Amino acid sequence: MEAVLSTQFTNPHLSLSSSSSSSLKPTLVSFTTRFPETSCRRTGGWRRKTQPRFPLPFLRISANSQSAPSSAATAISSSIPSAMKGWVYGDYGSVEVLKLEENVSVPEVKEDQVLVKVAAAALNPVDFKRRQGKFKATDSPLPTVPGYDVAGVVVKVGSQVKSLKEGDEVYGDINEKALEGPKQYGSLAEYTAVEEKLLALKPKNLDFIQAAGLPLAIETAYEGLERAGLSPGKSVLVLGGAGGVGSLVVQLAKQVFGASRVAATASTGKLELLKSLGVDLAIDYTKENFEELAEKFDVVYDAVGQCDKAVKAVKEGGSVVVLTGAVTPPGFRFVVTSNGAVLEKLNTYLESGKVKPVVDPKGPFPFSQLVQAFSYLEAGHATGKVVIHPIP
Ligand SMILES: NC(=O)c1ccc[n+]([C@@H]2O[C@H](COP(=O)([O-])OP(=O)(O)OC[C@H]3O[C@@H](n4cnc5c(N)ncnc54)[C@H](OP(=O)(O)O)[C@@H]3O)[C@@H](O)[C@H]2O)c1
């Protein structure tokens, strides 16, 4: 991580003037010292003590088949409360619908699930697209505790859980199918219940902040490159190489799939970051049109939504992976599947330092500043991952 973020890149979006300036150093420090709980509480994010908008019983009755008899859990820590602090929205809409509540019921674990005490969570564009109601037809019922990505500690295990145990430090994307019935109780709360198969042990060399930013993005990067058939010796162009997904695609392409040449697009201030991640050709999209380059690529990975241009940059017979927006042949779109086994496989590369997490230096945002964190992500210029820590 230090190697990545010590690079002097001059992006205007990374002006280090946020109120959480202590967290804006270009290297990460221990999460335990960064945002003391007292400073978090002062922000007043959970002053709703007397008027909880979604009191505990409300969330309990509408839990999207997550409730289970407590007998499903075989090991229960006596310190687990029945209610917790969590961010909740009861209507679809802009960031204004997000409310910090302190009487959200702690989800019960099903047989194949563990309860995770959340240490850090990360935001993904799917979180705000879901909140905006863009896939309400397949969403779980409102109200919703948002959040897909989590890193934390297992505090309770279901009766059919095979490998994980209390005290394990884990990370993962809690929703197997991103758009199909994502959990009503997400990771932006003190506790979240997750199927064991969606989690992996946290890489030993990473802290919770770094780990929380990885799951959905790195699984998307991996699955896209695998579906594209990227193999050793091939070339790849990544559109949006400095974003949450793109910053991992460029690294996995080289380190895991053996690409011989990696090109990527970003704005001027992020080109040095791209090079520090191993990119051979960093293209400034504010000055150059990648689709007009003479060089063509075996794989184009579009994390921006430019498929119409992406297909002009691929070699004949090559693959164009599309994450968002309209699809032009031969481009293909897929939706990521969360899979703890993929994280386990990638742990080798993370623990060796070959693949590095990129945490946006504007954060991590304390739990009470979730609205600011979402606003920042939604502006579309994050560098790597927007992480929320500590919780709470
Ligand atoms: N289908 C799936 O399963 C799946 C999974 C994950 C994500 N997605 C989607 O994929 C997209 C990317 O996700 P993400 O998490 O990587 O988002 P993100 O982190 O918010 O991406 C932000 C990055 O995009 C870059 N960017 C914006 N416009 C660009 C352009 N014209 N050319 C090059 N880079 C540009 C920004 O760089 P600058 O500041 O330099 O502009 C910034 O670094 C989102 O739409 C998301 O919903 C889909």
Account of the protein in words:
The relative contact order is 0.17. The chain has helices at 2-5, 31-34, 37-42, 56-61, 125-131, 208-212, 215-228, 246-255, 271-276, 307-310, 340-351, 370-378; strands spanning 73-76, 83-88, 99-105, 113-123, 149-158, 169-173, 191-195, 199-201, 235-239, 261-266, 281-284, 297-302, 314-322, 331-333, 386-388. The two termini are 24 Å apart. The chain is built from 12 helices and 15 strands. It is of the alpha/beta class and 392 residues long. 22% of the residues lie in helices and 22% in strands. The longest helix has 14 residues, at 215-228. The structure holds NADP nicotinamide-adenine-dinucleotide phosphate. Residues 13, 124-126, 178, 217, 220, 239-240, 242-246, 265-267, 270, 285, 303-304, 323-324, 334-336, 377, 380-383 line the site of NADP nicotinamide-adenine-dinucleotide phosphate (NAP). NADP nicotinamide-adenine-dinucleotide phosphate binds at residues 13, 124-126, 178, 217, 220, 239-240, 242-246, 265-267, 270, 285, 303-304, 323-324, 334-336, 377, 380-383.
Order of helices and strands: HHHHEEEEHEEEEHHEHEHEEHEEHHE
Helical/strand content category:
alpha/beta
- Residue-averaged pLDDT, rounded? 85
Number of helices: 12
